[in-house]
Design brief:
About 25% of the residues lie in helices and about 25% in strands. The chain is an alpha+beta fold. The protein has a 6-stranded antiparallel beta sheet.
Length: about 230
Amino acid sequence: MRKAKLLIFMLFLVPIAAISQQHSDISKIGRVIDNEMAKSWIETFKSKNPDKPKGFTYGKVMLQEMLSAEGVKGIRISYGLTESGTFKFILNGTDNAGGKIWSFYNDGSACPPYCPEEDPEEIDPRVVSIGNKISDEMANNWMEAYTTANPGELKSHLYGKALAEEILAQEKSAGIYFARGLSADEVEHLVLIAVNENGELMIEGVVGNRGNSCPPCPEEIDPSTASSGN
């Protein structure tokens, strides 16, 4: 069991040479995408996955704390399952080789029930302060549980620091909604969109995508042919 947990930890977090070769600067992974495309992907995921969580919101305070840690170049968003089977996002800052820096974060505001929209029905009163640190042990257990239950399926995304900071720098931005999307070719994406302090989605502002998804995971990537993922 200890070896299995170590393997999961290595899979998600350790510095991998392939990442460094693929991206000389992890901070630049991801780019701004068309707003209408983002809307379409988000709506498609909702319609085809009515019973799955649609995304999580994290507040500006937590995100800036994570991004400001010394050496942080990017954000990894990993999928996890709690002991009760609840789906979670687990965030951590990464260095320029993709390795974890400092702490794991969780306690995002889940959609549903708190779904950022132009006029959301329910608002998480925390907004700007959503998100908290969790222990390495808990994070690794959740990631291991998800991977075991969903072999071969998408399990994490990597985005650069620059894109996250651009989204947070917008006027009235109080956090980022990490929305699950589905494109016409059935590829799952993660779309990054600012939310304001009223829990409203700032969809007409900066919308980010084109991060690196896993799988294909770093050790499976041929650096000579690799391209940005989701």
